[in-house]
Automatic annotation (TrEMBL), chains A, B:
Pfam families: GHMP_kinases_C, GHMP_kinases_N. Its main location: cytoplasm. Catalyzes the ATP-dependent phosphorylation of L-homoserine to L-homoserine phosphate. Keywords: Amino-acid biosynthesis, ATP-binding, Cytoplasm, Kinase, Nucleotide-binding, Threonine biosynthesis, Transferase. Its EC number is 2.7.1.39. GO terms for biological process: threonine biosynthetic process. It comes from Flagellimonas aquimarina. The keyword Calcium does not apply. Residues 68-147 form the GHMP kinase N-terminal domain. This is Homoserine kinase.
């Protein structure tokens, strides 16, 4: 195989209680990338559609992630990358992760799969480091593994696949305001009370158990975040209203996607997810902030070949 | 049924990463209680064998827990309780929880099971409150439900049963030193770093996932506690040595049982649990502290009828 076209899913990191450890992949929104082998060493980003992003390898997350893989691979040639960037950077649904994960996954396919998913996550984390100064894995892990993932530990990196109940749907609304990931990290407190920590790890345990048991009600009860959401939600106009509206029409839970400004809700069944979308739209329609909105099944495959 | 004799299992609370939320029940060690219906109102503790504990209802955990049930039940009679107390109070393996859980479970049977397991946990928590000033549920929940339990939330109380891999064995050593639960809570810090919180909820998620997946290696990797163990272990002479010895002979993980001083290890298979026991004995033999030691399968039933 000399060329491959892949779908690179958007992802929701944190998933309320799981700050820095949990993430899930979406089906209905993602980038498309075409990656081809070249005789020339190194990585050339030849075309980016949809967004104004740097073509220079060292300044593009897919270039940096790809170079991390290329250096380890022993491959003497290089790659060209074309990106159809459908996820808006800064939206909080893993835009940089999709490009990073897609690049390394596609290259791995073209090289005959020398690397494991865990190694691909490590390469893709280099792209995340470029994007936000922190080599976090909570978006790239679900982008590569698909479904829900738990980053149990960073040192050593330990990524656990968690099963996805089949009727689980996500609704994600992206109000068009800008929040930088690095800014939204800075406002977090470096200390938390032990009491809130206990609540949080109780909820993480509950969410993981709910996903294994297909217990939608338990999933809903566990989608709480008493640590990060109360702080970060201040940066998102209308957050409380969106959340109460979504919960009012039957969402299992609702929270900030990654570092925001996107807000996600999880629902049992597409009909509920659709009602949640309508309720969210109405809030931002009233406030007068433009938005994108997505309704999506959970993507259980991660990055996948489309051509 | 007018009389019932029950086995009331010892329990391990916290299980390393799951401070205040996780617990498991043991098979090889527990109290035995005989509970019988009486025409006389109230609860009379008629006999306690094995330990010098108060017979007065209001001062005995089984009396207090039983009274909580009795008041809600509408039953016009009362109960007599005899306790064969095989778990040493203050050992850190849920001595008070066993008596509290056993009493309310037995009474519920005698009354024709009007109460759910969750309600029984709430009654038994009143016994815990008497014992340690805190109405914690992380011992009484596994004592009543059996297996591993997660107390996801206290308000409202939410107890989740977690499956138990069949080859999982616990080794518990109880060095004969006294630590009061209330003292071992006081030395904990009320704040933790967000960073340690993230590690902890990553590990709780990993442990729950490992238990569902029967992934012993993941269970082992997740049995870490960077928050409570470093502080509480100072109160337990030989802790680091016991832990390193247990890990050296193949334990999946090792930590403080509840608030100590007992130390537990989990192993895959009885043979490893036996080797772990030998390694632990050797440490306390050398230090010269007397000890009890137990090797036990995980008890998946909780309190059970034995006559």
């Amino acid at each position: 195989m000399e060329e491959i076209k892949v779908f690179c899913p958007a992802t929701i990191a944190n998933v309320s209680c799981g700050f820095d450890v949990l993430g899930l992949a979406l089906d209905a929104v993602g980038d498309e990338m075409t990656v081809r082998k070249t005789a020339k060493k190194g990585i050339a980003i030849t075309k980016i559609m949809g967004q104004d992003l740097p073509l220079e390898t060292a300044k593009n997350v897919s270039g940096v992630a790809g170079m991390a893989l290329l250096e380890k691979s022993g491959y003497q040639g290089g790659f060209e990358i074309e990106i159809d960037k459908k996820i808006k950077p800064g939206s909080g649904i893993g835009s940089s992760a999709a490009s990073s994960a897609g690049a390394v996954w596609a290259m791995n396919e073209l090289l005959g799969k020398p690397f494991s998913n865990l190694e691909l996550v490590k390469f893709a984390m280099q792209g995340e480091k470029l994007a936000s100064d922190v080599a976090h894995a909570d978006n790239v892990a679900p982008a590569i593994y698909g479904g829900f993932t738990l980053v149990r530990s960073y040192d050593p990196l330990d990524v656990i696949s968690i099963p996805t109940p089949s009727e689980l749907f996500a609704t994600v609304i992206h109000p068009q305001i800008e929040i930088k990931t690095s800014d939204s990290r800075k406002i977090l407190k470096t200390n938390i009370t032990l009491e809130k920590g206990i609540q949080q790890w109780g909820n993480v345990g509950g969410l993981i158990a709910g996903l294994f048991k297909n217990d939608y009600d338990l999933i809903g009860r566990s989608l709480e975040d008493h640590i990060v959401e109360p702080i970060r939600s201040i940066l998102i106009p209308g957050f409380d209203h969106v959340k109460s509206s979504a919960m009012g029409v039957g969402a299992l839970g609702c929270g900030i996607s990654g570092s925001g400004p996107s807000i996600f809700a999880l629902s049992k069944g597409e009909n509920v997810a659709q009602r949640v979308a309508e309720s969210m739209k109405e809030v931002y329609g009233t406030i007068g902030i433009p938005f994108d909105i997505h309704i999506s099944k959970i993507n259980t495959e991660g990055v996948k070949r489309i051509a």
